[in-house]
Amino acid sequence: MQGKNKVLLRNLKKEIEKLIRGSQSALIFGPRQVGKTTLIKEALLNAPNVREYPLQNPEIRAEIEKDPAILSRQLLANKNKPYVFVDEAQKVPEIFDGIQYILDEKKAKFLITGSSARKLRRKGSNLLPGRVKIFHLDPLLWNEFGWIKENNIKELEIKNINKKVDYFFEKSLIFGALPGIVNLNNDNDRKDFLKAYAHIYLEEEIRAEALSRKIGAFSRFLELSANESGTSPNFTKLSMESGVSMPAIREFYNLLEDTLIVERIDPYLKNARKRILASSRYYFFDLGVRNSLARFSLNKELINSQKGILFEHAIILEIIRRIRSLNKEFKVCYWRTSGGAEVDCVIDLGHKVIPVEIKASKKIALSELKGLKIFLDDYKDVADIGYVITWGDKPEQLADNIIALPWSFI
């Protein structure tokens, strides 16, 4: 097994290195601590004439906030066209005007990272359309852990790029998949890491959004929304329990989505023959962050008490991450009728769909898959096969159009 302290290869690295060789620019979004800085520094290791602007450094940030044009002046002074790494660009949105000018003048190329598009949009930053390629970096995928045994859904096929790491699937259900978590040597350090993550997120985002008067309410909302993760949240209930208005709850969810803390999953509504519930579901981007924010005890007992919830989260997040990593335009939805029939995940490929049910059991009976069978019958013109993802060991054909797959066989 691969040791904890070795830097793991990331799926995005080859793409970034290819861009650098072709002297192209990129904007890489991703939540805090997913490894954006490490990825870019490694990709630029052998590149000549690199300039760095780490905007998380208060001194550098203050200099550019005071005089945003200084970036253009410094780069124009370079005789050789540099590669410029701007880290956490959302901290100084005004920097994008200078970046656009330098790109248009062909005086430099940029690799830019950010953990929020919210502040950029609010300041009117145009995210450089047509000038940069935009990517999204997630927490570690299963092939980056070396966990894939087989690929049985060809649309999601991905190969291991690392040897199996000394960090197990069960651990990821408790502590999540952030690279910094994997590299720690014991669970107490992992608990401290996640506690600090939650504190820093609160501090930074509250400060950035000028919500200091609402920090108590937002902190309470974070805990409640983490508990609700994976569901269609009841805004009325959340409003009553957090002590803020329903419009504020909606705005808080927008903040979580814009800062990449949650993934929104919309219902599958195409060609519905039954009345379909139409509210969105929200999944926190990482299970460790979710569990910490929800104030759960981070130990094996959590799996015992929330096995089904954690397993569903892990599968949904992996599917979302894999689609992004493969650069596919697929959409992840869920399906639930007013009568209670449900499918946990519907992967919309455009021309067809793949319904996926998720069961945290080793053995699944066909009688447990009522919702999946109804969906396949109702949408047989676009869905020819469905899957149930299990905690089992080997794939099983449960019906002509239903296959059970262990999680590591996706």
Spell out the key features of this protein.
Rossmann fold; single chain; 3 domains; alpha/beta; 13 strands
Task: Give the helices and strands, then pairings.
Layout: H1 13-21, E1 26-29, H2 36-43, E2 50-54, H3 58-66, H4 70-76, E3 83-87, H5 95-104, E4 109-114, H6 118-122, E5 133-136, H7 142-145, H8 169-175, H9 179-182, H10 187-209, H11 215-227, H12 235-242, H13 246-258, E6 262-267, E7 281-284, H14 287-293, H15 300-325, E8 331-336, E9 342-348, E10 353-358, H16 370-378, E11 386-390, E12 396-399, E13 402-406
Parallel strand pairs: 1-4, 1-5, 2-3, 3-4, 6-8, 10-11, 11-13
Antiparallel strand pairs: 6-7, 8-9, 9-10, 12-13
Helix pairs in contact: 1-2, 4-5, 8-14, 8-15, 10-14, 12-13
Helix vs. strand class: alpha/beta
Low-confidence stretches: none
Strand order of the largest sheet: 7-6-8-9-10-11-13-12
Biggest sheet layout: 8 strands, mixed
Question: Short summary of the structure?
Answer:
By secondary structure, the protein is an alpha/beta fold.
Please give a structural write-up.
This protein has 16 helices and 13 strands. The chain is of the alpha/beta class and 410 residues long. Helix 10 packs across helix 14. It folds into three domains: 13-136, P-loop containing nucleotide triphosphate hydrolases (Rossmann fold), CATH 3.40.50.300; 142-323, no CATH class; 331-409, no CATH class. Helix 16 links the parallel strand 10 and strand 11. Strands 7-6-8-9-10-11-13-12 form an eight-stranded mixed beta sheet, sandwiched between helices. The chain has a five-stranded parallel beta sheet with strand order 2-3-4-1-5, sandwiched between helices. Helix content is 40%, strand content 16%.
